[in-house]
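Hi L., both proteins are below.
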Amino acid sequence: MKILIPDTLDLSLAGDVDAVVYDVRSEIPVEHRDAEVLVVWHNAGAQLEQAARDLPRLRLVQALAAGADVVLRSGFAADVPICSGRSLHDGPVAEHALALILAAVRRLDGLRDAQDERRWDAEYNDLQSASSTRAQYTLAGARVTIWGFGSIAATLAPVLRMLGAEVQGIARSAGTRAGFTVHTDADAAHVLAETDVLVSLVPATPETDALFDTHVFDALKHGAAFVNVGRGATVDEPALIAALESGRLRVAALDVTRVEPLPAGDPLWEAPNLILTPHVAGNRPIGASALIDDNVARLTAGEELLNRVGP
């Protein structure tokens, strides 16, 4: 079985396979268009659309990203299974989410500005220790809501709890996941009203486009923090900027934006109280080779594939 492996990641596959490394920035060479499996990591959208047209023998597209939205939009044949890299990024994304949450809550952005100015920020000490504001500068006793409660949230939530936060989730269905209470989207307004930190791990779908809009930010507890390590398309960015400018949101931290890379003239760069990182929460899929090996074996045996997202 011929498997096309992207040149953006070192992979070591087991089994009797013909693994061919390909350039994710170029068309698939003619001599390799008979491949049955295409592994995707950091491919350009146009390259994937070309691959969808040029690879008639495909039996599986294995994305290594936690969300396969770009692959799903690329036009692969309706009978070609598409699988995501869900679970490969649980640790790295949870780590980065925690870093952004702490940076936002402790307002490390302001302290960095003070450092750049060679200014010892004595006012910060007064703010974070004053009885009227000290609760804003700690996770101890804070109510953290994770919207999109999957495997990454299940990794992140226990760490937040260890730091003293009261953690709950929002997802399409209610219940208890990994020991945490999860509410449905329909109950979001009630949950948000008591939320100090809202964390988004929501994937990009037609249903979640601009999910985090004026209604959501207005529903949040006044002065809450918003952190997005999910997908940029889920945020109404003008509404986010307005919420930051008005003080409705005390601070926000984004690892993802609707347009990436973020253009130099984008108003997000100038938004107050906003921390930006360049979509680096993941980028280190852990256990990718094993997932590919497992799904190739399942494909050969005619068994159910792991992380199948379509069709």
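That was the first. Here is the second:
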Amino acid sequence: MVKEWNSKEIRFPENPVFTRYVTDTIPYRIPRTDYKVVVFVDSVGCISCKLQLPRWKEFMHEVDSLSGGNVPFIFFFQTKNVRELRYILRRDNFSHPVCIDTEDSFYKLNRFPGEIMFQTFLVDSENRVKVIGNPIHNLPVKDLYFKEIAGIEAVSMPVTTIQADSTEYHYGVVGENMTVSRKIILKNTGNEVFRIKGTTTSCDCMTAEYDWDEIPPGGKAAMTVEYKAEEPGDFWRTITIYGNIPEKSFTLDFWGTVRK
């Protein structure tokens, strides 16, 4: 996938219409800059899970700091559920211009991959792909963006091994609109200090909280994972933890049932 899209040109529709909060259209032209971040969001699955707009706002702020605000972000949404998207944008106070592509013209021009991880691109001034991957859902991809934009290399550290007290965690039956938490215990089973790089979640209804940065060899640390139940039915969510381990990351599963 990476080889196929490397240096491939991203083509934009003629005269796309951008809006703020899916309410008022605004005059916005796609700029010709050294770099742009292009985000395509298709209509498959949960929009809120895919977007995780608070994380995008954090990433955009980091990129602005590195580039002096010279890397624009271009968002194209394939969704026809305008009402839901308007709610999400307002809920997360995401005021950045977005294009609601109800005719799927952006997709038809480019035929993007179906996997969300390969629907975000860092492109150059000729709109050719320099990095493919979603920096919100994968922290090593985020490092690639920073390396390309500002020449910042990720710091290499000695690796160790980490073991969680389980790989699956069951919340049981959760009431609709309730927030429940589970505590997980991580143990450093290796010979080097474990330094956590961060976490990503499969949905913005999951959060991971911890007050530590390192675990010494043989040591343990706790992490609290909260789930906010929004819709009735069975659910399965994941949290990925990144750090100096051979595989770079590991994923934990959380599941249960939401009832009214």
